[in-house]
Amino acid sequence: MQGGQWKGRRRRKTRFRRFRWERLALAVACVGMIVFALVEIIGYGKDYFSARRTADTLRQVYQTEPPAPEITAAPVSPPPATAVPVLPEATAAPAVALEPVPYPDNPSAQISKRFKALRKENKDIVGWLTLGTLLDEAVVQRDEEYYMNHDALGKKNVNGAIFLDSGISLKTRPYALILYGHNMKTGAMFGCLRNYENLSYYHSEPFITFDTMYESGRYVIFAVGKVNTMERVRNYVDLFALRLLHLQERQNAIDELIKASVHSCSVDVRPDDQLLVLVTCVENENERRVVAARRIRDGENEAELKKAVERSWKKP
Fold first, then answer.
1. What's the predicted TM-score (pTM) here?
2. Which residues of 283-293 are buried (b: 16+ CB within 10 A; e: fewer)?
């Protein structure tokens, strides 16, 4: 009997020691997880404020007024000896593809002084994007990987930078400008795009300013929503078709963007319009949040365009 009691006490002590070590191991694991989370939070915080400093540094360069150019008389070219005959419009075949065009106010594609100053900070800077009060950032172009984890000055940063699709050439005016950025929970980079899904915000801020190193641009938003990158799936949009010059393929992609939009908008879009498309990831790895806009045409009035936007409504 005494031997049985002794064995029982021994088993209880063994179970107690095991329980105590399990509790200790659990406590150590919890402390480790808390320390890891704190390190992660501190790291994200450091990267966030570093990204803000980079943006402020570049913004100061961008907003500094460049010196006025010297005014010189432009040489007058003699008129051509013979005029080039122009075919009557009625005989011209309907175009099926767009032709590359030079920048209307900068046909020789001279880099503006603002961007010369910016490119001294980083030669990859090619544009500047402003979304109302949400975002005011430099845009870079290199490849599809580097600026996923580097800021616009090339420093390591989890926020990355906003970058132009590497397949888009700026040698002539592109018919589509596709920009990518991280969907940060802080709202940094393209984390702010979710605001446009709110109809009242869209009504209040329907315009985007995007300047490249060759020209300034003002755009009106016509579609906002989530699109799918998988074919034969609801809301699939071939965004890369927008980079093509074939009119019908561009029209198809525009139609799909409008169909996928969470808002119904009365702003018209043509396949020969210059488009600006902002793209970011969402929870579903096959989906992207997209804000699509078209360049304001010559002669259009922003006040009238805003009225057209304000007639839009949220789709059911």
1. 0.79
2. eeeebbbbbbb
